[in-house]
Each structure stands twice: as structure tokens, then as C-alpha cells.
Design a protein that fits this description.
This protein is α+β, with helices and mostly antiparallel strands. The protein has two domains: about 140 residues, 2-Layer Sandwich (BirA Bifunctional Protein, domain 2), CATH 3.30.930.10; about 100 residues, no CATH class. The chain contains eleven helices and eleven strands. Helix 1 crosses helix 11, helix 5 packs antiparallel against helix 9 and helix 8 runs antiparallel to helix 9. The longest helix is centred in the first third of the chain and has 20 residues.
Length: about 300
Amino acid sequence: MDKVQFSLPEEASELTASELAALRASENALRQLFASSNLTEVLPPMFEYVDFYRSLGADFDSERMFQLINHEGKTLSLRYDFTLPIARTFALSNLTKQGYSYFGQVFRKEARHKGRDTATMQSGVELIGDFSDGEALELAQNALQTANLSDVKWVIGSSKIFDSLSALIGPDSLDLQEIFAKKKLSALTKIPSEIRELVKLCLISDDLSQILIEAKKLSLSELTAHLTDLSNLTKALNADFCFDFGLLAPMPYYTGVIFQVYQDNAAKPILSGGRYDALLEKLGKPASAVGFCIDMNQILKGGE
């Protein structure tokens, strides 16, 4: 008789009874917070057509999707993301403004032997319609407090600011994303001299007023407006934060402010999100939108 195989697949993880109890307690507390904020809880399907992502032009990495073929011969994916199906729910409704909350798993392939979860428990919020970035950040802060997380660090960026800087440098420029990600001061010599100081300040300074002064000096009205919006937004943020204008968007559909929240003993962001105003138009119902997702796996680790 063959010996029973007790080991779990590398892609799988298992919660202990105490971890599951802590997860459910956090979920219940967040569910009460979201309900008190007049959010409607939804649960999108576990399976989606891969073509659903492709039809939106979303730059999703299909190699990271868990795919299978259904009885019709069409390619399906296990739930990869919550925002897109929730945006679809709103697009198919008669609503003009709606806040949603959700709880569930997403499935994304990870590099082997990296110790990363391929099935991640998430909770999150999508505010579709006339909602401000400040409302999303306030709700995100309340969610972190509800989850009993302290000593967190916010990292804040803006795809609008990054796009403005990229346009100034030009299409044949260096990889600006890499410059910001690696803090490559040596690469600044290859940036046009008239904007070199501006890019340097964006790279190394957390003093937004200095960057604003430089942008105004160069008469960059669009960039100045984006910087001013971000400055006004962060004035109301009662938290420890820094700016990163090369911050990678957690998903390819983000178009405005982007934010991530870290805690020392969590390996990945415990919360991430931003604005995605262009997505609903692709679904045939233009609307502004902002949201965030909470990595419940990291919440468990961060709360330890």
C-alpha cells in the first residue's frame, strides 16, 4: 500500500486554529466598520474569463494567473483581482455613486521558493462615483486602527506626477521607474539640465514645498497642480508617511494617487490602493473611483 502523502503543495498554506480565529476577528471588526460607513458588501465570482481582463486592455501578467479550460473550451482564471469585477457590478447597475466592501481570496502565482502566498486573503473597499481621495485615506486609516495595527509607515506616490515627469524627460529618456526604484543619483546627469534639479528633489526629498517651488520656477502648471493636490491630501493624513514618486502601482489601472502601508514585521504592504478614474469608462459607464485592498495574510503577521 502506498504511503500517504502528508506534505502540502508549495502553493498552499494552512492557518492554525488560533490564526483562523484572529483572521475572523479582524474580518468581523472590519465588516462592522465598513457597514457603519454605508458600504455594500459584495462577493465577486471565483472564476473569470481570462478574456475579461484582456478586453479591458489591462496589463495583467497572465503567467501569474491560475488558468483552466472549461467545458466550452474557454480559458478561465481563478479570481486574480477584486476591483475589476466590482467595477463591472457598478457598470451594470443604475447607480451613480456606490461604496463597496469585500472579503475573499485572490490567487496569483509567485516565484518558487520565495515563501510568498499564492492564495491571499483580502479585504477591501471600492468607492465609485463622487468620492474624494481624502475619504478613501480616512477609511483606510480607520481600517488599520480597527485591525489594531500601530507604527505603520505610509508610502505615497502619484501616477499623474510620474507621468508629468516622464513627459518632461521625453520618450527617449532613461527608465525613470528604475531611477526612482534604485535611487540612481548617477543617472541624473543624463536628464535634461533644465529639469535635473526638479527630478533630483523628487528623488531624494520628502519636502513637497521644495519640489513645488522648483516646479513653479519652471512654470510647469500641470505638474504644479498635481503636486498641490497631493500636498493638500497629505495635510489631512494623521500618520507617518513619505513620498515615492516612482511608486509602482499595485495594479495597472491606477491613474492618480497611489499609496502603500508597511509595518516592520510584515514583508509586503499590509494595505495598498489608489485612484483609478479611467477603468469605468472602459466598461461603458464613465465614473471616478478610488479604493484600497488589505492583505489579511500580512495583517495577521503585522499584528503578531
